[in-house]
Write a structure and sequence with these properties.
By secondary structure, the protein is an alpha/beta fold. The chain has helices at 37-53, 70-79, 94-108, 127-135, 188-194, 233-242; strands at 2-6, 9-11, 19-20, 25-26, 33-35, 58-64, 83-87, 112-116, 139-149, 152-159, 162-169, 172-176, 199-202. It has a single domain (2-242), classed as Rossmann fold (3-Layer(aba) Sandwich). Helix 2 (70-79) crosses helix 5 and helix 3 crosses helix 4.
Length: 247
């Protein structure tokens, strides 16, 4: 079994968000970067669990980014990846990123490609489906359980009002979310081993970008909370009727 896990670098959830260049670029000053949680906690850990069940399994990691993404990919190696690939380019267009990953995957003969359901910065949820389309293989989104039965994958996914169980022949692309696996923390042995694991840097292939960022905008500040004394229900009713009706 050969697995490719897609890893994205995202700002820490506690990072202060600001923009520069007339709100066209994310301000990276002082930002702590992490592995996208959906990639780390679910897709990568499920791949590691599959390797623990079958020692012949090989896990490759891939990220699309410049050199500052390497600490993030090294952490993913510390968790349990065998080797990593970094496509040396910086681009936020999902179509472009998926095309770069698919180009690597074409030559890797992977049985399984895992992505997180989305990244926590752009929330696009589109990379996995595009990779599958480029490779002409099946795609199953929003997996909450993943099991293998010989050359078939049995995948439970969320649908409106319930769950759906899919059975699909490998190879397949799967996007993972909460339920697939539980978060792990790298141990010292893994951190030390990650320093010597292969990290191959490749140059991007020529590929079209379909989108560009025009501007960013912060959400409006939240309004203050109004506290109404318990002995004034009429005032509460008035406020709910006149001021809260828009919600």
């Amino acid at each position: 079994m050969k697995i490719l896990v897609c890893i994205s670098k995202t700002p820490d959830t506690t990072a202060k968000i600001a923009f520069t260049d007339n709100n066209t670029k994310f301000d990276t000053n002082g930002v702590q970067w992490i592995i996208n949680p959906y990639d780390e906690w679910y897709s990568l850990v499920r791949a590691i669990e599959l390797k623990e069940a079958d020692a012949s399994t090989v896990i490759h990691l891939i990220t699309v980014g410049i050199a500052d993404a390497e600490p993030v990919i090294r952490k993913a190696l510390a968790l349990g990846g065998d080797e990593a690939i970094r496509v040396n380019t910086e681009n936020s267009d999902a179509y472009y990123i998926a095309g770069q990953i698919a180009e690597i995957a074409k030559h890797g003969q992977y049985d399984l490609i895992f992505t997180g359901k989305e990244t926590i910065d752009y929330n696009g949820s589109s990379i996995g489906g595009m990779i599958a389309e480029f490779l002409n293989i099946p795609y199953v989104a929003l997996a909450t359980k993943f099991e293998l039965n010989a050359s078939k994958a049995i995948i439970t996914r969320e649908i409106e009002g319930g769950e759906e169980i899919c059975e699909v022949e490998l190879p397949v692309v799967v996007s993972c979310q909460k339920g697939v696996a539980e978060q792990r923390i790298p141990n010292m042995r893994g951190i030390m081993a990650a320093r010597t694991k292969p990290l191959k840097v490749t140059e991007p292939v020529a590929f079209e970008s379909l989108t560009s960022i025009i501007s960013f905008e912060l959400p409006h500040a939240k309004a203050g909370v109004k506290l109404i004394p318990a002995d004034q229900p009429e005032e509460l009713a008035r406020l709910l009727h006149e001021e809260a009706k828009a919600f």
